[in-house]
Amino acid sequence: MTDSSVRFPAEWEPQAAILIAWPHAGTDWAERLADVETTYVALVQAIARFQRVVICVADAGLQAHADALLQANRVDMARVRFAVVAYDDTWLRDSGPISLRDGDGFRLLDFRFTAWGGKFEAGRDDLLVETLAAQGVFGDAARQRIDFALEGGGIETDGAGTLLTTWHCLHERHPDASREELTAKLSDWLCQDRVLWLDHGALEGDDTDAHIDTLARFAPDDAIVFQACDDEADSHHADLKAMADEIAALRTRDGKPYRLFPLPWAQPIVDEGRRLAASYANFLIVNGAVLMPAYGDAADDAAAAVLAQAFPDREIVQVPCRPLIWQNGSLHCITMQLPRGLV
Questions:
Q1: How far apart are CA 269 and CA 266, in angstroms?
Q2: What's the CA gap between 31 and 25, in Å, rounded?
Q3: pTM for the full model?
Q4: What is the pLDDT averaged over residues 12-39?
Q5: Which of helix, strand or coil describes residue 71?
Q6: Using an 8 Å Cβ cutoff, are 20 and 79 in contact?
């Protein structure tokens, strides 16, 4: 039984800010730092048109550098706040807080971050929420530490008690737990009363073990936006077709099919022989807009058109994300929304 006074809000609900971390030479971006900073500048430009941005920086020097870049690109700095904190990398969707509304306040769930099952160093990232909370970034919100590996990119909620996730990811993190056990834990911690599992769907070049936010996302009014693949010659076709069939079989709380919005498929992007995961499902919702990853592909505009149908009351803003997928993630992966009132 879930606590009805505590709720996990949908991403399209009113927000206070977006939390990001600026890349620097001590992160995995070092080799292509200037390249990826163009994406971060464009992202902050886009967010600041609609709401505030909280930017984690490793030290005062990085803050001065980021500040100068943003000012040079005419970002509204009145909407930018910096927080000095140590971090291993910049994937704040997975190391940042999962915010629940708790009565008139907030509860920040601080799950254990293992860098997707111990693939990378994550000691500083795992302390990120605790450190930011101690600095007062989240006001007087209560922080709840949970000794369980879970990343924000691995879960998706409709804000009304239904969670969407993938079995592959959660099973990789917790191989000894049954689906029933994981359903019970997720329902309890995240205050959900339904957990929908997908058994298919994965992208080459994705080291998250099939995070849901690269595959399928809720949209308002019982809709699901998902990454499709219409190229039968592509290695992803069979699995994404199986995922599309699974999604079509899902039912709303009222027993009806979801309204479905399949996203187009970008042409393969290969970097030094490695296929990169260019998913349009990795979009970010902000107040009044949807920021979508653009890859310099002919399908970019078609993806924007689909998102405009799924989010008819929001502006669709394309953010160049080709530099991001070199490190196996995209727009949603580097951001975490903070609900209105939290900061």
A1: 8
A2: 8
A3: 0.97
A4: 97
A5: helix
A6: no
Q: How far apart are CA 295 and CA 263, in angstroms?
A: 14
Domains for the chain: give ranges and CATH numbers.
6-339 (3.75.10.10)
Give the H or E element holding residue 108: strand 105-112
Residue whose C-alpha is closest to residue 226's, from 320, 306, 294: 306
Cα distance between residue 165 and residue 8, in whole Å:
15
Give 68's contacts (C-beta < 8 A, 6+ positions apart): none
DSSP states along 15-45: EEEEEEE---TTSTTGGGHHHHHHHHHHHHH
Q: Answer yes or no: is pLDDT of 170 > 80.
A: yes
CB 109 within 8 A of CB 146: yes
Query: How many Å apart are CA 197 and CA 170, to the nearest integer?
Result: 10
Helix axis angle, 60-72 to 33-48, nearest 10°: 70
- Distance between CA 149 and CA 138 in Å, rounded? 22
CA distance 311 to 291: 11
CA 305/CA 330 separation, integer angstroms: 19
Which element (helix H / strand E) includes 334? none
CA distances to 57, 70, 75, 335, 336 from 66, rounded to whole Å, are 8, 6, 11, 16, 19
Please determine, for residue 57, whether its predicted confidence score (pLDDT) is greater than 50. Answer: yes
Let me know: does 94 contact 126? Beta carbons within 8 Å. Answer: no
Alpha helices in the chain (DSSP H): 33-48, 60-72, 92-95, 115-118, 128-134, 167-173, 179-190, 237-249, 299-310, 322-325
Q: CA distances (Å), 156 to each of 102, 164, 265, 321, in order?
A: 19, 5, 21, 21
- What are the b/e assignments for 58-86, b being 16+ CB within 10 Å? beeebbeebbebbeeeebeeeebebbebe
Report the catalytic residues: 333
The dihedral region occupied by 188, where left means phi > 0, alpha psi between -120 and 50, and beta the remainder, is alpha
How does pLDDT run across 300-326, given as a tens digit for each residue? 999 999 999 999 999 999 999 999 999
Query: Are residues 100 and 107 in contact, defined by beta-carbon separation less than 8 angstroms?
Result: yes
